[in-house]
Amino acid sequence: MYDLIGIGGGPAGLTATIYAIRKRLNVLLVSRDLGGKTNYSLSLPWIEDYQVVRGLEVVNKFKSELEYLKFARLLQAVERVERRPEGFAVFTEEGRELLTRAVIIATGTRQKFLSVPGERDFMMRGLCYSATSYAPLFIDRKTVVVGDGELALRSTAELATVAKHVHLVGVNPDALELPLGQKLKAAENVTILQDYQVVEVKGNGYAERIMVKAPDGHADQIEAEGTFIEIGLIPNSKMVEDLVNLDPQGRIVVDCLAQTSVPGIFAAGDVTDIYAEQVLVAVGEGAKAALSAYDYLLPLL
Ligand SMILES: Cc1cc2nc3c(=O)[nH]c(=O)nc-3n(C[C@H](O)[C@H](O)[C@H](O)COP(=O)(O)OP(=O)(O)OC[C@H]3O[C@@H](n4cnc5c(N)ncnc54)[C@H](O)[C@@H]3O)c2cc1C
Question: Distances from the Cα of 101 to the Cαs of 6, 16, 141, 176, 248, in angstroms?
Fold first, then answer.
């Protein structure tokens, strides 16, 4: 029986696990990989060194500690978590059943893809999914945002503060009625292509243009040095969907102590309803979840 099982080896889960090891808890991290989304970074022809805030030093330090501490990690995917009288059972896709007194869910989110030709070829090579992280790299550049809702509006607004031009493709008319939508309609460096559809991403080594179809069916292309797919994120919360409270987007609802609606189940990072999706936020939330789980466990140790 473990004291604590962390599920998910991104910034939140790695930090939580290292904190738990320091507290001398009998802890296991179960994850598909170590590093999570920090294993991916955007490559651009004009950028040699990253100028974005990533906190990679801390994440990589925790990652290499766990690569070394083989007893504290299990590289498997988790299928579901169930209650047990003495705590919880964690079931992996490979058929393992692991018993624990407490759990931290830190499984992050996954992107929604456009699923058009060229998207996978240029992923993270001029085409990416996080304007919040990368907009500052596009000073005076031509950019495209693809998406129909508020996330796309927000990304367009952020890029418009630095980029030469932003094409917003596929936005929903209702979203344009929001205050941010109204502002973008009036912005000189924003072109809104409402109800257009992206059919292909093309380029040479890096994404360079996207092929679109207008509502009347005619084909067109937009040159872009940066393409941002902003159609949303899906939280990886399925394993506890019948146990804890989720918000309408499927994110795990947590309080300021990283507690879910079920005592003994904690959650941290992008899979939760906290603001915002950034590495250093996830690191902080992971630390908080581990300390909170430790307080929960103290009377049981
Ligand atoms: C393209 C892109 C670029 C980004 N760039 C930046 C940046 O420059 N700066 C910045 O601060 N933020 C950036 N972000 C955001 C940042 O990466 C995330 O906020 C951060 O990684 C969240 O950490 P996390 O631990 O919550 O989740 P994740 O990093 O998503 O980690 C989740 C972990 O859970 C594991 N997992 C998922 N499901 C299961 C399962 N069923 N069983 C077992 N394991 C599972 C995964 O394998 C992974 O290890 C970027 C995001 C994207 C998508």
Answer: 11, 15, 52, 48, 28
